[in-house]
Design brief:
The chain has one domain: P-loop containing nucleotide triphosphate hydrolases (Rossmann fold, 3-Layer(aba) Sandwich), CATH 3.40.50.300. 51% of the residues lie in helices and 14% in strands. The protein has 188 residues and is α/β, with parallel strands linked by helices. Strands 2-3-1-4-5 form a five-stranded parallel sheet, sandwiched between helices. The relative contact order is 0.21.
Length: 188
């Protein structure tokens, strides 16, 4: 008997851990829509100003609320989805658990050494690759603190979880990640 519930693939990790790139690849290969917190936040940033880090954080929280609402609507329609965000352990589970309970959910968690995450994040900020409303330069100290506190550890959702080392490509490899996300994976 097959499980008709929609697929929900959560891609998590710290900012700068490679989750956006991997989520885009998973969505393409799995032929699922991709929703990201940053895409929503950047649309909000274009509509309303975020002159400082405090306002950027407020819009980040609003972006997560919109993300969860849209994901819920897609799932209600029976549409599977890949969802990417810098979910926070101990905070994000409350919103994600009800979504996971009604889907075939997989968590793909991207991670690398903290110093590599910080370096990648700082380099990206220096290149100005992201919307200026993120205030990435001012957020570097927050990232260091959050990494030290374990905020970006894998979420505790009681679902199949795959930890992916993004230090030099993907470990496990992309084929194994795709198999896991498609439901062929194992519980961690």
């Amino acid at each position: 008997m097959s499980d008709a519930r929609p697929v929900l693939v959560l891609v998590s990790g710290a900012p700068g851990s490679g989750k956006s790139t991997l989520a885009a690849r998973l969505a393409t290969d799995l032929r699922l829509p991709l929703l990201t917190k940053d895409a929503i936040k950047e649309a909000l940033l274009d509509a309303v100003a975020a002159p400082d880090r405090s306002r950027s954080r407020e819009l980040g929280a609003a972006s997560f609320a919109v993300l969860y609402a849209v994901v819920g609507r897609l799932l209600d329609a029976g549409v599977g989805v890949v969802v990417e965000g810098n979910f926070r352990r101990g905070r994000s589970e409350g919103e994600l658990q009800p979504l996971a309970a009604r889907t075939r959910t997989r968590l793909v968690h991207c991670e690398t050494r903290p110093e590599a995450t910080i370096r990648h994040y700082a380099e990206r900020a220096a290149r100005g690759e992201r919307h200026p409303g993120h205030h990435d330069g001012a957020a570097l100290a927050d990232l260091r603190r959050d990494l030290d506190a374990g905020i970006y550890a894998p979420l505790e959702l009681g679902i199949p979880t795959l930890r992916v080392d993004t230090t030099a490509g993907y470990t496990p490899d992309l084929e194994a990640i795709l198999a896991f996300a498609a439901g062929a994976g194992r519980l961690e």
